[in-house]
């Protein structure tokens, strides 16, 4: 096609090519979900329907973008890790973050009605997500990233569970509950739940306490073998439906999860 005299403006574009040979983590987070969740009457502290929409949207993103090896999410956020040698969009940051945010949002909206049949999304209150990319060059920093997110989930969930129990069962106002909790540490919160309300925090649902982890699992192939396969061989397994995305509510801070799935860190 002939070039127009306007074409020079293309030179103003700047591109950030993310560091090669390292893990790209893309985190999407709901914009203004504090308000969004109160507008659609999410159950507090954890609305299971809303978490299912998030988990299913993330699963759909994983199925549509095969470079995603694993995802972890809680509340209104999800982190996706791309394999180390991923070349999607030539690792251009703006392409990656915008694609993840819009793909996630599209699935979220599509999956919403099944979980919230009586609350159609309204034009003035649509869900939107921002997205960022961070590159981790070592297994240590990548694992610490996921440990950071899971620890955050745990801290928030313990706080929210205690806070909403004080309000819903203890008759406190939200302000009173906040004051009561402001100087407490983790063990105090366990104690309040147990001694005042007979709730053993450890028996709360695993999905709430640990968040949700989605992993590509290879069927009929032992983990030792997966670790030695080339990208082309992995792709072939994918095409033969020997791969599925599994949803887990497990500890990802310790070594066990990673030792059982060496291919995640290849
Ligand atoms: P920002 O736009 O800066 O992300 P935000 O309002 O989305 O602001 P976050 O820190 O992302 O703030 O927190 C998300 C909030 O959404 C939570 O604090 C909680 O109130 C609400 N929320 C998200 N998911 C759920 C859920 N499944 N059940 C109940 N509340 C939820
Ligand atoms: P990329 O994912 O790299 O953006 P792309 O296929 O989206 O690739 P673009 O350069 O963005 O490529 O071009 C969009 C193409 O979509 C146009 O070339 C045209 O073929 C098609 N297209 C977009 N809107 C319309 C429309 N309203 N009617 C017909 N064709 C359209
Ligand atoms: Mg948010
Ligand atoms: Mg958030």
Layout of SSEs?
Elements: E1 23-30, H1 33-39, H2 48-64, E2 68-74, E3 77-82, H3 93-115, E4 129-136, H4 139-168, H5 174-181, H6 186-197, H7 206-210, E5 212-218, H8 223-226, H9 231-239, E6 243-248, H10 256-259
Antiparallel strand pairs: 1-3, 1-4, 2-3, 2-5, 5-6
Helix pairs in contact: 2-3, 4-5, 4-6
Bound molecules: adenosine-5'-triphosphate (2 copies) and magnesium ion (2 copies).
One magnesium ion binds next to strand 1.
- E-strand count: 6
N-C termini distance: 43 Å
Mean model confidence by pLDDT = 95
Structural category is: alpha+beta
Overview in brief:
The protein is an alpha+beta fold and 266 residues long. It contains ten helices and six strands. A hairpin with a 2-residue loop joins strand 2 (68-74) and strand 3.
Structural features, described:
- The protein is α+β, with helices and mostly antiparallel strands.
- It has helices at 33-39, 48-64, 93-115, 139-168, 174-181, 186-197, 206-210, 223-226, 231-239, 256-259, and strands at 23-30, 68-74, 77-82, 129-136, 212-218, 243-248.
- A six-stranded antiparallel β-sheet has the order 4-1-3-2-5-6, sandwiched between helices.
- A hairpin with a 2-residue loop joins strand 2 (68-74) and strand 3.
- The longest helix is centred in the middle third of the chain and has 30 residues, at 139-168.
- The N and C termini lie far apart (43 Å).
- The model has no long low-confidence stretch (mean pLDDT 95).
Jot down its keywords:
binds adenosine-5'-triphosphate, 10 helices, alpha+beta, binds magnesium ion, 45% helix, 266 residues, 6-stranded antiparallel β-sheet, globular
